[in-house]
Amino acid sequence: MNKTYHRLRGLIAAVALLLCAPAPAQDASPMDRSVAQGKYLVDVGNCSSCHTQPGAAPFSGGVRFNSPFGVIYSSNITPDRGTGIGSWSAEDLRRAMHEGVAAGGRRLFPAFPYTSFTKVTDADVRAIYAYLRTVKPVRYSPPANGLLFSQRWALTAWNSLYFEEDRFSSNAAQSAQWNRGAYLVEGLGHCGACHTPRNALMAEAADKALEGGVLEERVAPGKFRRWSAVNLTSAKAGLASWSVDALAKYLQTGYSARAGTFGPMNEVIVNGLMNLTPQDARAMAVYLKSLPGREYSGERVSPDQIKAGEPIYKKRCEKCHLGSGRGGTFTGPPVAGSAVVQSDDPASLINIILYGAEAPEDVALGGWEKMKPYGDVLDDAQVAAVSNYVRGSWGNRARPVGTAEVAQQR
């Protein structure tokens, strides 16, 4: 009787637990999984920065890009049928990303980086399409492009010279982690679009991949200036002083002991790379750190130029960056070994001296003090002098900065 009672009570308790427990989560449908994957890919690819104006509806286009051939505006990629891509099929998007051809056969300008997106897998393109179909449609037509050579037939010739449709191919000699990083950096991340030098016809120089590039971006409301994108190879003027851990942290947070985000990288970090999984951030870092780099062998800052800039550095910069150039945990980032400081084009270094550095609200730069602008404190010759001091000290190797280059950035 007693055993029967206890068994019955145990059965009742078990039934009660089953009745009160929450229902097991249902597996997401294939479409839901595809949409979620597409959103991740769109985020990591930083599509928002290029297709969303400040304060405007997401992906509605109209972002302005300055080029040597004139102004170009990004397109509306919301599913609006009249002004966006609502009438596009999945195949239309695939062809745009892989071949640079829009629905209807219109050729796209390579400001849309199909030269990188061509490496993205068909499956990932389908996921991107599935996600973009869920975005709120917005009826908006961007301004007309102001390109000097707006005849799109010329793109056929450009493509024949500089573009070949491709897909990412794994390197069997490398790890799965390395290959994942290569896929993200070379394809969806399109890092080469900014970090690779371009020729006179704005094609990426394949023999100098990721060795540093230039772009035009806003420095203040209504003001656009030249910026330099750093060397991402393992050269001393690039990422030689970075560890894989520091680089992975920077990619995902915008901050590491080596540097903090500023300028055009702010949007790349906040709208794109912050969405990386830790695994993907590390994979990208592993791949980038594996890239060999050519060491700088050109003209270097002279001892006299270093001496001329030293008093300005001691008065204005040493408090945060220290006499060693190594910076401090609670003061500022290192300038010794800095890729920004040693960039062949000094535009970003000049900009940060003139305009300061504003990190996004979503990025915490540890205990560093905010870099204030010195544009109203230092004249062009002084900015050039202190630039030369940091570009020629502590083993840094870079060419001298001229006063005229500073004047251009004002």
Report what the structure shows.
The chain is mainly α and 410 residues long. The protein has two domains: 133 residues; 234 residues, Orthogonal Bundle (Cytochrome Bc1 Complex, Chain D, domain 2), CATH 1.10.760.10. 41% of the residues lie in helices and 6% in strands. The protein has a two-stranded antiparallel sheet. Strand 1 and strand 2 form a beta hairpin. Helix 4 packs across helix 6, helix 10 crosses helix 12 and helix 13 crosses helix 17. The N and C termini lie far apart (94 Å). The N terminus is likely disordered.
The poorly predicted ranges are 1-25
Beta-strand portion reads 5-15%
Structural class: mainly alpha
The share of residues in helices is 40-55%
The DSSP helix count reads 18
Number of domains: 2
Q: How are the strands of the biggest sheet laid out side by side?
A: 1-2
CATH topology of the largest domain: Cytochrome Bc1 Complex, Chain D, domain 2
CATH class of the largest domain, named Mainly Alpha
Strand and helix order: HHHEEHHHHHHEEHHHHHHHHH
* Cα distance spanning the termini: 94 Å
Largest sheet: 2 strands, antiparallel
According to DSSP, the number of beta strands is 4
- At CATH level 2, the architecture of the largest domain is Orthogonal Bundle
Q: Give the overall form.
A: globular
Radius of gyration from CA coordinates: 25 Å
Can you identify the CATH superfamily of the largest domain? Cytochrome c-like domain
